[in-house]
Predict the 3D structure of the following.
Amino acid sequence: MNFLRCPKSLWLLKLKPEVYPHGEFSDYAKKIAAEGYEVEGFVKDLIASRPDATAFSFQSAFQADRGLYARADFTRDNGNGTINLYEVKSSTSVKTGGQHNQIKDVAFQKIAAEEAGARVARVFIVHLNRDYVRDGEIDPEQLLVFADVTQDVSEIEATARSEIDSMLELLGRHEIDETSCDCLNLSKGNHCDCFDYFNPDIPKPSIYSLPRISKSKLQRFVAEERFDLDVIGLDEVTDRQAPVLRAAQSRSPVIDHAEIAAFYSRAEYPIYFLDYETYSSAIPLVDGARPQAPIPFQYSLHIKRKPDDIELEHVEYLAELPAMPLALIEHMERHIGGVGSVVSWHAAFENTQNRSMAGLYPEKAAFLSNLIDRTLDLEDLFKEGYVDIAFGGSTSIKKILPVLAPDLTYEGMDVASGTDAMESWARFISMKDGVEKDELSEAMLEYCRLDTYAMVRIFEEMERL
């Protein structure tokens, strides 16, 4: 999969590992890996209960003469000289797109197994049942879906074999052109880890700072070797990209006062600055939960009663036991009044949780729907209302906060991201009472508190404009 994403990146990893920009797996990647093993545990329990359990083998390795190596999560000996291959995933469906193409993954395993001498009859991806709702002990039979992807693999096998041939040919070279890589034609979020190594002369900011740039436009700029935003015309970009381009070329923020005024004309006091933290897991944590479905377990709320208020009210909630979010909702009901705007950042996330909770608790639907109706998305201001190239073409609060409120920072915090909060809560609810648990609680509360206070500061700064 590394090869398919960026061939030269794989070459550098294998042939020049000393210069490859090795980094630690992200916390999210570690979570996904751990969940895969957790799901595999339930697969083993299910297989062990079957009358043909002895036909299955776990972690079967296949080594082909020309260097291909694959390890299947498990296989089944069909008793006729053939085997079935099984790949276990912690997703709730078979993924077929981009760098997470699971069909390509198992196609490689099939090819490696066959080149190692095995005869593969069928190929399966074992994933989670998105409709499963926990009710008591986990039922592996209901939790797991065995998706037969034999036909899907067959349809791409010729392509996969050709790609493998190309990969082995590349890895057989002792030298390649290291002055660029194919990621030049991809948006910033799809760049390989080695992008700066292969493309050291790309300016910052560059065309990769333009939000939602189309593939065709990006390829045209690359073909013309126009990476610097100073040589891009306003007539060549979209309305969404234009403010970023103007900010880069003017070396100053681009401010649309009418856009900002329109946002604040919709703001009604008191203002409730709201942020959720959610926990999702492959294996549902509590009764009523589904695989990978987020469960809000924490919120922070800063309340600004009047425009000239200096003192803010702050409310926070952190679930101390694994539970569905009814207690969280009831806590919010006591502190969020029936009038006034609710301000969130990337509010689609909060509103998705509100809709989900309304579905779980119909008696709370009126309250939660009212929150949705009153929600303003502070992030919207930074799409066209206030654009600074220092944001790097991003509208993430963690890119904007250092520019508008540099005295506030997430750096050095024990909990500094949503993934940190999720992992911390998993530890928190299993810890015994004591100093260590109290310290972790405070770190989690501090992080969520900063999320909403950061919104207050940005809101006030933009209100001054």
Summary: Residues 162 and 168 are 10 Å apart (CA to CA). The mean pLDDT is 95.
